[in-house]
Design brief:
Distance between the termini: 49 Å
CATH architecture of the largest domain: 2-Layer Sandwich
Oligomer: single chain
Helix content: 25-40%
Shape: globular
Structural class: alpha+beta
Bound molecules: flavin-adenine dinucleotide
Radius of gyration: 19 Å
CATH topology of the largest domain: Uridine Diphospho-n-acetylenolpyruvylglucosamine Reductase, domain 3
């Protein structure tokens, strides 16, 4: 199917893109186009105007400053997967970017587009939630009248394909703490064989001192409408030695944190995904701590 007719325009700066959004009702931002264009072709989205932000250099790039990794929203998955800065600062993000889709998707798709689209099956919402990332959002006047604001990943995602982004706002950058030497992070997913999208994905960051877990953040995605933190698992991991048995007992508690709204489809039922959540979480901690090589 072809998309409905639309006007195409290019923005050369963030402020121009915001101004164009504000003066054209229903207009949509085009970043890598790997989610927007399929939606338009299926006529699930019918924007009268598409604003191409692909040429805005100020929205690209990767840097580390004062213990914070900063990535411009237009940075592609391939740029992240090839970056030694990301590899050193956040190995979990580096590996996850490499596991997204295929080379075409990674070469065009952007971190900002992935987050703004908020597909429950996307990998980055789960990983950025577990990494305690903060998103910079810019807007001016129009409906939001908020200027620039920072929103944590925990607050940003509100449901399937839903975020706190206002109509005239643009996501410009993503920031997250650089992992400390005693922090170990990993993302494990059961990937859909056709697309690599997460059927169930699990992210963990564990802090380990003298063999004991002194802090944990865990989140799962793919099976819930938005990334879901696991407070019961986090509490159970805290203060224990990370042995295989202890990890298995703690990760089993994720079931109680999932709630009742579990996604399912012809590929994998909700019941099956629910059962897989603890398994992917266990794999993630095994890999993060090196236990995977011994079990
Ligand atoms: C075959 C295939 C396989 C894929 N596999 C995976 C996978 O394994 N894992 C995974 O995580 N993802 C996967 N994806 C999705 C991919 O990562 C997309 O790149 C991503 O979802 C959207 O990024 P984009 O830059 O292409 O955004 P676009 O398609 O350009 O935009 C998506 C939406 O976000 C909005 N938007 C874009 N940028 C901004 C911004 N800066 N501020 C505000 N709004 C913005 C747009 O208006 C639009 O509504 C796959 C996609 C395809 C087609």
């Amino acid at each position: 199917m072809f998309a409905t007719e639309f006007e195409y325009t290019k923005a050369n700066s963030v402020s121009e893109a915001i101004q164009l959004l504000g003066s054209n009702d229903g207009a949509k931002i085009l970043a890598g186009g790997h989610s927007l264009l399929p939606m338009m072709k299926l006529r699930l989205a019918r924007p009268p105007m598409v604003i191409d932000i692909g040429g805005i250099e100020e929205m690209r790039g990767i840097s580390v400053e004062n213990g914070t990794l900063r990535i411009g929203a237009l940075t592609t998955h391939a740029d992240i997967a090839e970056s030694h800065v990301v590899k050193d600062a956040s190995g979990i993000l580096w590996e996850t970017a490499y596991g997204i889709g295929d080379p075409q998707v990674r070469n065009r798709g952007t971190i900002g587009g992935n987050i703004a689209h908020a597909d429950p099956a996307s990998d980055l919402p789960t990983v950025l939630t577990v990494m305690d990332a903060v998103f910079t959002i810019q807007g001016q006047g129009g409906i939001t009248r908020r200027g620039s604001r920072n929103v944590s990943a925990d607050e940003f995602f509100t449901g399937p394909f839903e975020t706190v982004l206002g109509e005239n706002e643009i996501l410009t950058a993503i920031e997250m703490p650089v992992l400390a030497a005693n922090q170990h992070a990993e993302y494990a997913k059961m990937a859909h064989p056709a697309t690599s999208f997460a059927v169930v994905g699990a992210g963990v960051v564990v802090t380990v001192d003298n063999g004991v877990c002194t802090g944990a953040r865990v989140a799962v995605g793919g099976l819930t409408p938005k990334p879901t933190r696991g407070p019961s698992v986090e509490a159970a991991l805290n203060g224990i030695e990370l042995t295989a048995d202890n990890i298995a007992a703690a990760t089993a508690l994720i079931d109680g944190d999932l709630g009742s709204d579990i996604l399912g489809d012809v590929f994998a039922s909700g019941e099956y995904r629910r059962a897989m959540a603890a398994i992917e979480l266990k794999h993630a901690i095994f890999h993060a701590t090196g236990l995977a090589h011994h079990n």
